[in-house]
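Q: Entry one of two.
A:
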Amino acid sequence: MIDAIAYKFQTGVQWVHLPEKYGNWRGVYNRLRMWAVDGTWERVFTALVAQADAEEHLSWAVSVDSTIVRAHQHAAGARKKGPRPANPPNTPSADPGAV
C-alpha cells in the first residue's frame, strides 16, 4: 500500500493509471484518504523524524531554487499605481424616450 502511494506521488501518474501490481487504485486512494483524515501519516512522520533525530541523521538545511518558485500567471498584469478608480454611478435620464 505504501509503495503504491509512493509510486503515485513520485511519478505523478493519475490514480486510474496506477500499475496493476499495486491492486485496485480505488483501494489505494481510499486508504490514503483515510490515513490522512485519521492522522496516521502525521504519526508516521513524527515517529520517523524522532528516530532519525535520535540517531543524528537529520540535517535541517532548506534550499529554495528560484527557478521553480513562480508567480501566478495573473501576477504579471498587476497595477503599479494603486487601486483603479471607481466607475462613475449611472444616473437615469429624465426623459426615457430621449437618446
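Q: Entry two of two.
A:
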Amino acid sequence: MKTRIRTEAAALWQIAWPVLIGQLATVGMGVADVAMTGHFNAEELAAVSLGTSLWTIVLVTVMGIMMAVNAVVSHEVGAEQYERVPHIVRQSLWLGLGVGLIACLLLNASTLVFSYLQLQPEVQEKASRFVHIISIGMPAFAMYRALYGYTTSLNQTKPVMVMALGGLLFNVVMNWLLIYGHFGLPQLGASGCAVATGVGIWLMFGTMIWWMRRAPAYRATNPFSHIEPPHWAEIRSTLKLGLPIGVTYFAEVSAFASVGLLIARFGVIEVAANQIALNFSSLVFMVPMSLGIAMTTRVGQALGEGDELRARFVSWVGVGFSLAFSFVSATGITVFRDSIAAAYTSDPAVQKLAADLLLFAAIFQLSDAAQVTASCAIRGYKITRTPMLIHLMAFYGFALPIGCLLGLAPEWMPWRPSSPMASQGFWIGLILGLTIAGGLLLAYLQRISSIRVRMAVKSGKIAG
C-alpha cells in the first residue's frame, strides 16, 4: 500500500509541479503589483489593494467557470475519445470570449462600490482607474483558461509554467518602468501596474496559441485546424458544469476580498496590511490548489476509464498530500511572519499589523487545503452544485456575518464586542468559514466516492 501511495503521489506531483510554478507566477503578478507599489507610497498601495480586491473577485470567478473544461476533457481523454477533444476546446474558446467580455463589463461597473466606502477622494480615483485599465485583460484571461484546462487534461502542464513565468517577467519589468517612470516613461504608480498586468495576460494567451500550434503533444487533438462557429448546445453543457464552480470560487474569494473593502473605513494602514496578509496567503494557497487541479485531471481520467476504485484512491492521496504540506506552511508562516511583512512594505505600522494578520493566515492553512482539494476531487466526478452550496453556506452564512459582527461591531447586532476588531475580527470569521467548508467537503467526498464504488460493485464492473 505504501508503494502504491508513493506512486500515486508522484503521479499527482508530476502534473502539479508545473501547474504550481505557473500558478505562483500568475499570483506573483499580484504580489509584484502590491510589493512594488508598497515601496512607492501608502496611497498608491491602498489604491492597488482596493482595485485588486475587485479584480480578484471577477478573475477567480471566471477561472472557476472555465475549470469545467478540465473536467470535460479529462473524461474524454480517460475514455480515449480523442476525436471529441478539438471540438470541445474550440467551443470552450467561444465560451471564454463571451464570459471574458461580460466579466470585463461587470468589472468596470463594480467600481461604483468605491463611492460607498468612505474613501479618500484620491484613493477612490486611483483605485477606479486601476480597475478600468486592468479590465482589458479579462477576455484574454478567460480564453487562456480554456486552453489551460485543455493542456492540463492531456497531462501537458509545462506550457502553463512557461507562459506564466514569461508573463511574470514581463509584469515585473513593466511595473518597474511604469510605476516609477524609468527611462523617461511617465510615473504612473497604480495605473502602471494595471497596464503591465492587462497587457501581460494578452501576451500569455497569444503565446499559448503559438506553442500549441507547434508542439507535437497537441497534434492528435489539434483544436486550431479550422475555425468553427459557436455550437450553443456544447457551450451550454460546459457552462452548466462551470457556473457552479464559478459561484463556488466567487463565494470564497469575494468573502476574502470583501474584507478588504469593508475595512476601508479604518484607514490606509488596515487596508494595506490586510492586502499583504491576503496576498501572501494566496501565494501559499497555490500549492494545494495546484494539487487540486492535478486531482481533477487524475480523477476525471480514472472515471473516464471506468475505474471507480482508482478515482477514490487518487482523491484521498491528494487530500493527504495537501494536508501534509499545509502543516509545513502553517509552521513557516508563524515563524517568519515578521520577515514576510517587511518584504512587502517599509512602513512600520503596516508591517506590525500585517505580521499579526499572517498569524491568522497560518491558522487556516489546514482547513483551506482540505476544502480546495476535496472540492477539486469532487469536480473530477463532474459534481459541482453541492460544493457550490457548501461554500455559499460556509462563507455567507458564517464567515462574513461573524466577521462583520467582530470586525465592525455594529450597535444593532447582539453579542458584539465592546469595540470593533477591524481586520482581525474579519479574519476570525474567515477561519470559521474555511473550517466548516473543509469539514463538509471532506465528508461529501467520502460519501460520493463510496457510493460510486458500491454502484460499480453492484453492476459487476469491479469485484466485491
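A: Comment on entry two: The radius of gyration is 22 Å. The first helix runs from residue 2 to 38.
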